[in-house]
Design goal:
This protein has 380 residues and is α/β, with parallel strands linked by helices. It is built from 18 helices and twelve strands.
């Protein structure tokens, strides 16, 4: 069961687990999901195989010698407090729900920002660090058009040179929130010349990482970072890539996570169009040439109609008449969208059985729709 704000002891326990089993993400995630909390795992640290028979030798040994990991967790927690960083454990409702679905999701993310990581629409825009004028123009036009077609989208990328930083900057220029996923801790910004953009992003989006402070931006960390970029999003858009570019890794991970993958084609023979063209040719990505193409492929064109209706002053009367109890549910989801039934029950003070029946009626009326993980989404 997820909670609004995790207990500090649970966060410390989660941090300690991450320190002692850093490179076995799938196994650790499975154990965490099975037991329900990091504290539960630590309580069984001396007999962990009775709870989880497949625990690795490294984890068993690490749990027996927990002191160093706990000390490091406390140092990290203190840094978070001093610098306004939110540690989001997997059981926290603020943790990205899309990412939680992935087997190798991090147990905890460090987040500094103000964007909702569970927005209705989340898209990552990735590509080469050596983008051309053509790539920059594509990003600029696509984001500007997307704002008209889908007014509410969270743009995610990796804060790297080239396509990434252009995606972040164009997002902010067009009034979007944007989140950068980092390959290092939040005690630094890499590359350093993107610091000013990163600071602005904390006010119009955020910075997100699974890495502790004092973690350098090593090559392998960028690969690990890419899985978060892919998993947090509904769709991956590849703009420019060489035949072996890093953006192709994000696209592959997105496909593995059953996300939609799109690529902009480029001129035959251009080095930084080769990866996109190959991906399209091999059916690894759908060809996209405009924001309208993308929105139609994703089934997001209703956003454009709703945006137009709002601009013309059409009120919520588009929806069928709601009962008083349905209105309570509607108002709760309007304040915090994509909630599970138990949380809606808490917010409305209505019993779960009643909420279940109300949501069924509201789904028939086209007011809400169910999402993965037992959440309900307000169609607004």
């Amino acid at each position: 069961m997820t909670t609004d704000v995790m207990d500090e002891k649970e966060i410390l326990a989660t941090l300690a687990l991450m320190r002692i089993n850093y490179f076995s993400l799938s196994g650790l995630s499975l154990m965490y999901r099975k037991t329900g909390s990091a504290l539960e795992i630590l309580e069984h640290r001396n007999n962990i195989r009775e709870v989880f028979p497949d625990a690795s030798e490294k984890l068993v040994a690490g749990l027996r010698g927990l002191d160093d990991a706990m000390r490091r967790a406390e140092v990290e927690m203190d840094f978070c407090r001093k610098h306004g960083i939110m540690p989001l454990a997997m059981n926290d409702t603020r943790y990205p729900a899309r990412l939680r679905e992935c087997d190798d999701a991090p147990l905890l993310l460090f987040y500094r920002g103000n964007a909702d990581l569970n927005q209705k629409r989340v898209v990552n825009i990735v590509g080469t660090r050596h983008c051309t004028a053509y790539g920059k123009d594509i990003v600029s036009r696509f984001v500007k058009e997307l704002k008209n077609v889908c007014p509410n989208v969270l743009i995610v990328s990796g804060l790297a040179y080239g396509i990434d930083i252009n995606a972040h900057r164009c997002a902010m220029q067009n009034g979007y929130e944007t989140v950068g996923v980092l390959a290092h801790g939040l005690d630094q910004i890499y590359p350093p010349r993107h610091r000013d953009t990163a600071v602005r992003m904390t006010e119009q989006g955020g910075l997100l990482t699974e890495f502790f402070t004092q973690t350098n931006a090593d090559k392998m960390n960028f690969v690990r970072r890419n899985r978060i970029v892919a998993g947090i999003s509904d769709a991956c858009i590849l703009v420019e890539s060489s035949a072996r570019g890093g953006g192709l890794i994000t696209a592959r991970l997105a496909r593995d996570y059953n996300r939609d993958v799109f690529a902009f084609p480029g001129r035959v023979g251009d080095m930084y169009s080769e990866g996109c063209n190959n991906l399209i040719r091999n059916n690894g990505a759908a060809l996209v040439t405009s924001a309208q193409d993308f929105a139609e492929a994703m089934g997001w064109t209703d956003d454009a109609m709703l945006g137009k209706a709002r601009r013309q002053g059409i009120e919520r009367q588009l929806f069928p008449q709601m009962s008083p109890d349905e209105t309570l549910v509607f108002n709760a989801l309007q304040k915090q969208n994509d909630m599970q039934i138990n949380m809606i029950s808490v917010k409305t003070n209505l019993p779960i059985a009643k909420i279940t029946a109300l949501l069924f009626e509201m789904e028939l009326k086209g007011i809400v729709k169910p999402l993965a993980g037992g959440q309900y989404h307000l169609l607004s």
